[in-house]
Specification:
Strand order of the largest sheet: 6-5-4-7-8-11-10
Oligomer: single chain
Largest sheet: 7 strands, mixed
Bound molecules: zinc ion
Number of strands: 11
CATH architecture of one domain: 3-Layer(aba) Sandwich
Radius of gyration: 19 Å
Length: about 300
């Protein structure tokens, strides 16, 4: 691991005035935090091991995977409506749920993903995507925060997009009430996988500086708001319970979970669910939701 020398979002060098946090450094200039020290290849390999996305698809028990599929379907419809004609690039395409939903609407699609297990996937960074194809939209759905050079990726998206093309970004919101409340234990910090940590203002200011006009900001469309509350509340209980791992299928867990701890974590989650839902319902209208979704257009 090596120390981060500069802000992953604005590039300002870290010095004595930077804000030192647990495993991250806050930037005084733009307000972003950078995971610090940066994870090395071995740590990332372990963090993205087979447990993260097991073969055969599906990561979650209960309705988790179905909910993921449904929200991607809604995003595909929205994107198809607001983007000009042309192909769509999904950076960090995961299992391809969004691509499938877009293809079903007649869109030409390409996904970037580690390992690239599908014909319409490319294993590479956005810099490897061919320019001049008149991309209609570029999507960073909970992927921007995983990239080692997130700002360079946004600028590359600006170069790829046709004039009027649409940029979609969904990321955790460090300005949320849940982020403040749970602090270093907030689920959506997700270190070491997340390398940059943004607030709504930091994100939208950066997009404006890079030639985008922000047209919509939503704390509902980005999803994953209730789970941020629920995992935080469960982790606040004594006994080291871990709801997020308990919700995952056995082959999609970081480490084995004893049946007793799994049941205790799920039971605590069930009991605390109304409180978590209330927290999410309170922070969203205050525009301090746990995640943020931004639609911006290249100008
Ligand atoms: Zn910065």
């Amino acid at each position: 691991m090596r120390p981060a020398e500069a802000c992953a979002w604005c590039g300002a060098p870290f010095d004595g005035g930077s804000q030192r946090l647990d495993r991250r450094t806050g930037c005084r200039r733009c307000g972003a935090a950078t995971t610090d020290p940066r994870p090395d290849d071995a740590e990332l390999e372990a963090a993205y091991g087979d447990w993260y996305r097991p073969a055969g698809g599906g990561r979650f028990n209960f309705a988790g995977d179905a909910i993921l599929g449904r929200t991607r379907g809604l995003l595909a419809r929205r994107l198809d409506e607001i983007a000009p004609p042309g192909p769509i690039l999904d950076v960090g395409a995961g299992e391809g749920t969004l691509l499938d939903a877009l293809a079903a609407r007649g869109r030409e699609v390409t996904g970037l993903e580690r390992g690239a297990k599908r014909g319409d996937f490319v294993d590479g960074s956005i810099e490897a995507v061919r320019r001049g194809d008149g991309w209609a939209a570029v999507v960073f759905w909970h992927s921007l925060e995983h990239l080692p050079r997130p700002r360079a990726a946004i600028r590359e998206a600006a170069r790829l997009l046709a004039p009027g093309g649409v940029l979609i970004v969904a990321v955790p919101n460090t300005g949320s009430i849940q982020a403040r409340l749970f602090g270093d234990r907030w689920l959506h910090l997700d270190i070491p996988r997340h390398l940059v940590h943004l607030s709504t203002a930091t994100l939208t200011t950066g997009l404006g500086d890079d030639g985008f006009r922000v047209e919509a900001v939503s704390h509902l469309r980005a999803g994953q708001v209730v789970i941020g509350w629920l995992a935080g509340l469960v982790a606040s209980l004594p006994g080291g319970l871990d709801l997020y791992q308990a919700l995952r299928r056995p082959e999609a867990r970081l480490a084995p979970l004893t049946p007793a701890r799994r049941i205790a974590s799920l039971a605590a989650g069930a009991i605390l669910l109304p409180l978590a839902a209330a927290g999410a319902a309170a922070e969203i209208p205050l525009r301090r939701g746990g995640t943020v979704y931004v639609e911006a257009r290249r100008i």
